[in-house]
Amino acid sequence: MEYADLVALRRDLHAHPELGFQEHRTAGIVAGFLARLGLEVHEGVGGTGVVGVLRRGAGARSVGLRADMDALPMPDSGSQEWKSRAEGVCHACGHDGHTVMLLGAARELAASGAFDGTVNFIFQPAEEGLAGARAMIDDRLFERFPCDAVFAAHNWPELPLGSARTRAGPVMAAADRFDIRITGGGGHAAQPHLSPDTLLAASELVVQLNTIVARCVDPTETALLSVTRMQGGSSHNMIPAEALITGTVRTFNPRAQDIVEARLRLMAGHISAAHGLQAQVDYRRYYPATVNTAREAALALDAARLAGLDAAEAPAPALTSEDFAFMLRTRPGAYLWLGSADSRPLHHPAFDFNDQVIPYGIRWFSAVAHRALDNI
């Protein structure tokens, strides 16, 4: 297979996954690889982030290319030799592949990149819900490593191998998390008249939460609310003292986001009160929408065509989320979906990055660098 050494490295990273802000081994491998290429290497950016700087000529233009490094807190149920050796930690989103693709691009650009300017290779920690991109920005990422624009890609199992999609405007959704705790009950299941029923209230609330998007958000807007966990009780003959509901909200418009949060809080309070109970709501907006700038989205697709990919505009954004959104709030840029079929869906416990994507990703990152620095 082409790029055999990078495939071997990708599989090594898969076998040794690390959670967000704990990517010490991965960051060390990345830093060592970049140093051997002769790049200027900066470690510990935003915690465990690494930035490699490659300069050519005297040009003032600069571009940032970003890959994420962290894994997910879930078991690996795969059967491959390079299955995760870390209990309860798994590269089920392909960040091992993203890291290797960007390392490959750094090698190719360092060896033969005829451009005039600066390429900043940004290896980011903690994408999976911990906002590593924001941590790097707070650590003065773009002041220390100026970027006129910044680009990233994610493997996309829903697209055929050799294809690429992105679009101007929103490409990924804002992601919110809610946790609702209903309290004030507790008693014998055979004496329901003596205790408010937390599970009954929680069940009614789950049903009503699923009406918010359909009945409170403008039908022309895209929004989603999913209840993903409901907990309560530990015995067959006990009404529990509390019940917990957890879920996620995805939106593209801050107005829709405000409506969903307000209605959720109102429903939780009123339905709980109607049952003689209290509700505590913790609502956290952890990632904003990922919004591409038009010029950079066009550049990303043009670079994909140069890389030999079937590139086209995405017909609609995805309701998944991505903390690259924080970088796009700070700098112009674009986020690309890179076809990776055939593979399991993202976040599946048996997911394994499709190594055939590696050459495409390397060529795309390299073409983006050249295009962004106006040398093709």
Question: Can you describe this structure?
Answer:
The protein has 376 residues and is α/β, with parallel strands linked by helices. The chain has 2 domains: 4-171 and 289-372, Aminopeptidase (3-Layer(aba) Sandwich); 174-287, 2-Layer Sandwich (Alpha-Beta Plaits), CATH 3.30.70. The protein is 34% helix and 29% strand. It has 11 helices and 16 strands. The strands form 4 sheets. The chain has an 8-stranded mixed β-sheet with strand order 1-2-4-3-5-16-6-15, with helices on both faces. A 4-stranded antiparallel β-sheet has the order 10-12-8-13, with helices on one face. A hairpin with a 3-residue loop joins strand 1 and strand 2. Helix 6 packs antiparallel against helix 8. The longest helix is centred in the last third of the chain and has 21 residues, at 254-274.
Sequence-ordered SSE layout with sheet pairings:
Elements: H1 4-15, H2 24-36, E1 40-45, E2 49-56, E3 62-68, H3 95-112, E4 117-124, H4 132-138, H5 141-144, E5 149-160, E6 163-166, E7 169-172, E8 174-183, E9 187-188, H6 198-209, H7 212-216, E10 223-231, E11 238-239, E12 242-251, H8 254-274, E13 278-287, E14 290-292, H9 294-306, E15 310-313, H10 324-330, E16 333-341, H11 358-372
Helix pairs in contact: 1-3, 3-11, 6-8, 9-11
How much is the radius of gyration in Å? 23 Å
Mean pLDDT: 96
Strand line-up of the largest beta sheet: 1-2-4-3-5-16-6-15
CATH C-level class of the largest domain is: Alpha Beta
CATH topology assignment of the largest domain:
Aminopeptidase
Strand fraction band?
A: 25-35%
Please identify the structural class as seen in this structure. alpha/beta
The global form is elongated
Low-confidence stretches: none
Helical segment count:
11
Query: CATH superfamily of the largest domain, please?
Result: Zn peptidases
The helix/strand order is HHEEEHEHHEEEEEHHEEEHEEHEHEH
